[in-house]
């Protein structure tokens, strides 16, 4: 149903349309997500030439990526002989943040697929292929580059002499994906990431946002409370965990490093719970090792339940002035239900809104619907020559990322 509830999924569609219509590269936002942008452009071109299903083929591609993630995750669990594999795989498949992103036009699951593939290839001692796979993960989402550090630890433990070769191959593959961006836009800096997702923020708002994203949206308030209850009764497990860390146990150390690096990245940019997706497999590996089966089932059931309803319900609203509005409720819609409703609102936009004809002095305020409006009117806008400018900036989307 639509490209997704995330505004960026529609921005991907708009940028990909420009790519396949002109045969030239356009960055959807920031420094670009070239692998996914090119892939999506190809898929949308195929769709246009066949049955014009709009978002059907891109969403099917994401579903296939998710299926591949499940397969690679199972292979990793099998190789490391993790207990309760069936429970972990079911929970991984139906975890709300995975479930809702398994059928949308976003790069999260494609990114995770390449990360898991890279991980799996290392434990199969196929280091060159692993470096290539990780390079593809960066091509899909640049921040995946942080995974180089946990994976280098694996390579170093398995075969030290492969470390330099791994870094060189990974760097070359990663850099090659951004050659189109450098060719077109000439610049490459962290400043490229400044967009609508980074409004001014107070310290309180920042901390509340982190807590809300992790404990409410990502794993759910009920699962978070259950984890807090378990802590006082898990002293022996914690002792075992730190003992294995000191002994440099391969599985425990690698999984912990992966969680630390991606969590640190999230703490710096806590804008979407999806940014935590790459740490899910390693988190599941650790709870599979240290949790009793009963507690594991309860915890993961509560996580899945969060997709349908939350008790208690809390609505946080963050605005660009650094203000936080908190509205508590006894029960609230889960993330999956909210996702379906928002996707429906986006797809109904064309049906519920009349054709917009603007005179030169007119102003239309579309807010987050602008990317949706651009997609539904892409051919008309493209014909006017106002879809992009001479510097290949997507001028039709300018106000999507304008915090004003």
Which of globular, elongated, flat, extended, rod-shaped describes the shape?
A: globular
What string gives the helices and strands in order? HHHHHHHHHHHHHHHHEEEEHHHH
The number of helical runs is: 20
Low-confidence stretches: 400-404
Backbone structural class: mainly alpha
Number of strands: 4
Strand content: under 5%
User: Rg, please?
Assistant: 22 Å
What attributes characterize this protein structure?
disordered C terminus, 4 strands, 404 residues, 4% strand, 20 helices, mainly alpha, two-stranded antiparallel ribbon
Secondary structure: elements and pairs:
Layout: H1 7-22, H2 34-49, H3 56-79, H4 85-94, H5 96-99, H6 108-123, H7 127-140, H8 148-158, H9 163-177, H10 179-185, H11 203-218, H12 221-230, H13 235-246, H14 250-268, H15 280-290, H16 293-305, E1 309-310, E2 313-318, E3 324-329, E4 332-333, H17 335-347, H18 349-352, H19 370-376, H20 378-384
Antiparallel strand pairs: 1-4, 2-3
Helix pairs in contact: 1-2, 1-19, 2-3, 3-4, 3-6, 4-16, 6-7, 6-8, 7-9, 8-9, 8-14, 12-16, 14-15
Tell me what you see in this structure.
The protein is mainly α. The protein has a domain at 343-401. It has 20 helices and four strands. The longest helix is centred in the N-terminal third of the chain and has 24 residues, at 56-79. The radius of gyration is 22 Å and the shape is globular. The protein starts with 6 loop residues before the first helix and ends in a 20-residue tail after the last helix.
